[in-house]
Structure formats: C-alpha cells, structure tokens
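How a chain folds remains the central question behind the approach discussed here. This step matters because it turns folding into a mapping between discrete strings. The sequence in question and its structure tokens are set out directly beneath this paragraph.
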Amino acid sequence: MMIWNWLLGFVTIVLRGDELPRFLRLCSNKGLLVWNVCHRDWNEIQVCMRKSDIFLAKEALRKTRTQIKIVKRDGLPFLVFRYRKKVVYFGSVVAAIIVLMLLSQYIWRIEIVGNSYLSEERLITYLEDNTCGVGIKKQRINPPELEKMMLKDFPEIIWNSISIHGTTLHISIKEQIPEDEIRQEEDTIDRDLVAPIRGTVQSIYVRRGTAAVAVGDKVKKGDPLVYGWIPIYNDSGTEIVKYYGADADADVYVTGKISIHNEINRRHQNRLYSGKERRYIYYGSLQHQYNVIPILYGKIQHTSMNSIRQVYLMDTIPLPIYRNIVREREFTFYDEDYTNDELRALQNRFCQDFIEKLAEKGVQITDKNVMISYGKNGSVMDGELHCLYPASEYAPSTIPEVINTRNDTL
C-alpha cells in the first residue's frame, strides 16, 4: 500500500479547527484515505492524504470550517515535477540502460585461441554460416551442440571448448596438424649433406649416413660432406653386399670466408615535413567500413597512419563499434648529400645486419677484414668475414651400385 501511495503521490498536512472528528468522518464516508493521524494540539492534527484526495476533501473542509496547511510533499509525481528541467538527462540515462541491456543479449565478439592450421577467417565464416556469428542472440547459441558440430565438420580439431563470457563467444581448440605432403615426399628421398661454403672441415660428427670427408679436408661449396647411404658388409667384413639408403644427419662445421659488398650513393632524397597535420576520428563496424575522410592535401604527398580499435564499455564489455584514428602529415622530397660520418654509420649498420642474419643460421664470425672507401658519388664497402659455418644444406643422394669382383669358377 505504501508503494502504491508513493507512486500516486501523497502529502503531509496539518488540519486546524473545532470539528476535526467530523471532518475525518466525512472523509471516511467519501472513501478518502487518511493515515498517520497525529494530534499536535486539542484543535490541531497532522495526517497524510493522497494528492488526488486533497481536491475531493474541499467540501468537507468547507462544512467543518477546517484550515489546512501542506507540510510535506512525497511521491513520484512530486519528484518528477521537482526535476522537470532535467527530464532529458534522466531519460537519456534510462534509455542508455535499456539499450545496454538489449545489446548485452547478443554476441559482439568472437575470440578464438589455439588455432594454427585453421585460419581465424575460416572459422568465423563457418560460425556465421551456422547462425553463430557476430550479432546473434546468445540464447540461440548452444555451446555443447556447437562443439559437436565443429568436431564433426573439422577433422583437424581433436578437442574444443566453447563458452560465452558477457558478449564474447570464446572458442578454444586443439588441432592435429597434418604433415606437409611435400615434406613427406622429401623425406622419402635419401639426401647428402653438402658444404655450405668453400673452406676447410673443422669438425664432423655423423649420426646417420657415411662420412665423405675428414677433419682438415678442403671442400668447395656443394661438395658432399656426408653421404645419404650406409654400406652393408658380408659376414667377414671384407666385401660390400648392399648399400642401404639413409638420409644424412650430422654436425659438420666448415671454416671459410664470406665476401661482403655494399654501395651507397651520396646523393639521396629526404622528406621535409611542412608541419601541416590533421587528425580524424570516425566510427563504424569491422565488416562494413566506410572511409568518408577526404584526402588532406589533394595530390600533394602525405603520410597516413591508421589506428583501428574496438570500443569497450567500462574497458570490459566489447561493443559492435570500431574507432579509427587517422593522422595525416604533409611532406615534400628534397635532395641531400650524406656526410662521410653518415655514410660510415650506414655501412656499419649494413654490416651489422648482415652479421645478424648469418648468426640466425648459426654462423660464428671469427674475424673481419672489411674496408670502406669514400668518393664523390658515395662509399663502397668490400671485405671478407672469416667464419665457422654449420652445414645445413642437402642435395639428392645417388646410391652406388654393388660391384662384385669375385670370379666364380667350376
């Protein structure tokens, strides 16, 4: 009852007169609700009445010559009237809450982890074809049933787990990646381990195959280091009866020299930024992006940097809105000459990058003999790098035929 009275609105009033009991009886006869009656004096009481009943009690007030004074106004109608100038603000808050509640019933993000062979685009397309993509109501998705469908339709998946967290569909999978068919074909071919550079064999350790060289032997690039076959001898160990194919596997290091050469022109083009810069921020969906941003300086050269990110509510709830921040800077090209110090720095950087690429292959640089010369048109770097190079290159192996030199006589 109190909640209903608050929704309709009620007032707290003070009544003063000599016929207050009669006034209360008249209100009761008309069905007017009066509560919280409190005596303040012999001819004064305080009561609560509904807002609409005040107007219906005018006749009783006139008959009993009772004076009325409103002390307090309570309830929803008075609250709305009090904040009537901020109704748009409160309405916007209520509308935002309603929209948020409606949007939270849908899937706005798909998170896939554990996939390496299956592409994320292929899995998302599969989900959209089965009405489980972005924008689908969460109630329409049955995670256990979807797990069974994916295991059936994708033989590569051996295990998966699907769950819904907020507005995100989280998919974890484990794959059984098939072996590369090309690699399988290569594995059936017996291969020789060959020398990567021209030099001297520093060390050799054979795990499978037959050694073709020894420590200290001179080799050229492409020469066999370990043959991809193993000889099988007879019981006496004096005669080869068969050659067994085996893909060569060994640790062989060759010491040698690697030539390095690089030329840099002294004259080069550089960018001169004019200082003019403009930034744009626009929103859209990931699937349908409309770039309505005009080109900043027409045909004049400029750089553009984009940063696309998904919008989150309170940094936790992903929304189906993507923000793109575009930054454009105007520039022009001008010719400039490198100084000798700048040329030296560029050549050293090239040499360092060259050495780092060799280090990724396991090459150890033992000594450097590099010269940098400077001229009117630029600089030239020539030299040699003394290195310890691991053998990792292969070539198809040819298994020799068994030659029987025994003469059978009768």
